[in-house]
From TrEMBL:
Its EC number is 4.2.1.46. Residues 4-305 form the NAD(P)-binding domain. This is dTDP-glucose 4,6-dehydratase. NCBIfam families: dTDP_gluc_dehyt. It comes from Paenibacillus barcinonensis. One of its GO terms (molecular function) is dTDP-glucose 4,6-dehydratase activity.
């Protein structure tokens, strides 16, 4: 089986590539990533010489590049490639539409032309919008995205659905809650807290800090995608989440406490525009149909994650200094604009 993983140098994509190579000793992975500021080849160092993994720097919105890759023969596509940070989408929505909507459409066209056996779209619970104090997102919850990021993800999802309905393309869409774990870019809440706290810098908490996110360890997300890829019923959406809702302030206090840093580092700042109040996933369909359940509990998962960052301060330092992109310049001669970082 030859799997095309897009966005496999990012946070979840790189964890997925490592997971799949270990879990499926006969599979080959073609890993396609544009290496934006969020793509980091250092996440893939441990598989540098693994002949079952091929890395190609390419843009999913580039028709010719995708054509060349699909022509090599691909069985399954798992599309992680995306602009993924809500705050950036508020500043520059255009690149989100280009990658998350147009890039998805380019992949779908190639998948249709080359008759792949499954197209799995990695989406997010944010497409459902914001929850009130009660209730959970099910697969039937109407899409009501509130940020340019979530709107662009919803646009991609709708195209995936349409290619299934119109052309019979075998697809699945997964919608997962917030992930945490190794290799997450430190613009996202948990690695941001760790990075700033280690430097004794203030931790910005948006608004009143009482917004709620439903946290899942990244490996549990990867295991769910593996299951859906193999056993998901074509055309179906599967929500992924571990029933682990926490307020942001709880997350900040937990991480600071475990790092032995004072709560005085917490600094309440202006709220994010359009800030969704609460996300909560109902994972019943995935559990009952495919037998998935999370292995990692938050209490241990967050400790392991903090330890990972403490043990990989070189990784963090190279991300923060921008040095992680030097590999790209060396290997691909591509100019990665400093303004991207
Ligand atoms: P990330 O930003 O860490 O990684 C995204 C990767 O996509 C990067 O390596 C980047 O270089 C690549 N990329 C961006 N534009 C590209 C393009 N045009 N062509 C090819 N590659 C491109 O994101 P992540 O957190 O790993 O998220 C991966 C996917 O999972 C996204 O689709 C995101 O919407 C979804 N998701 C993320 C979370 C989360 O908590 N992080 C939760 C649910 C769903
Ligand atoms: O400095 C911060 N202070 C703060 O209070 C940052 C970066 C975030 N926050 C808040 C905003 C959110 O309520 O913390 C919460 C989590 O923020 P992010 O890490 O930016 O994640 P979120 O906006 O919830 O989106 C994430 O989960 C769903 C991913 O970035 C998305 O790609 C995914 O789809």
């Amino acid at each position: 089986m030859k799997i095309l993983v897009t966005g496999g140098a990012g946070f979840i994509g790189s964890n997925f590539v490592l997971y799949m190579l270990q879990e499926h000793p006969t599979y080959d992975i073609i890993n396609v990533d544009a290496l934006t500021y969020a793509g980091n080849l250092e996440n893939l160092k441990s598989i540098e010489s693994n002949i079952r993994h091929t890395f190609i720097q390419a843009d999913i919105a580039d028709v010719q590049q995708m054509e060349n890759i699909f022509a090599q023969g691909i069985d399954v596509v798992v599309n992680f490639a995306a602009e993924s940070h809500v705050d950036r989408s508020i500043l520059s929505p255009d690149v989100f539409v280009r990658t998350n909507v147009m890039g998805t459409q380019v992949l779908l066209d190639a998948a249709k032309k080359y008759q792949i056996t499954k197209f799995l779209q990695v989406s997010t619970d944010e497409v459902y919008g914001s929850l009130g104090p009660t209730g959970l997102f099910t697969e039937e919850t109407p899409l009501m995205p509130n940020s340019p990021y979530s709107a662009s993800k919803a646009g991609g999802d709708l195209l995936v659905r349409a290619y299934h309905e119109t052309f019979g393309l075998p697809v699945n869409i997964t919608r997962c809650s917030n992930n945490y774990g190794p290799f997450q870019f430190p613009e996202k809440l948990i690695p941001l807290i760790i990075a700033r706290a280690l430097n004794n810098e203030a931790i910005p908490v948006y608004g009143d800090g009482l917004n709620i996110r439903d946290w899942l360890y990244v490996e549990d997300h990867c295991r769910a995608i593996d299951l859906v890829m193999h056993q998901g019923r074509s055309g179906e959406v599967y929500n992924i989440g571990g029933n682990n809702e926490r307020t942001n302030i709880h997350i900040v206090e937990t991480v600071l406490e475990q790092l032995g840093k004072p709560a005085s580092l917490i600094q309440y700042v202006q709220d994010r525009l359009g800030h969704d109040r609460r996300y909560g996933i109902d994972p019943t369909k995935l559990q009952t149909e495919l037998g998935w359940k999370p292995v990692h509990h938050f209490e241990t998962g967050i400790k392991e994650t903090i330890n990972w960052y403490l043990n990989h301060q070189d990784w963090m330092a190279r991300v923060q200094s921008g040095a992680y992109q030097d590999d790209v310049k060396l290997q691909y001669g591509k100019q990665v604009g400093d303004s991207d970082v």
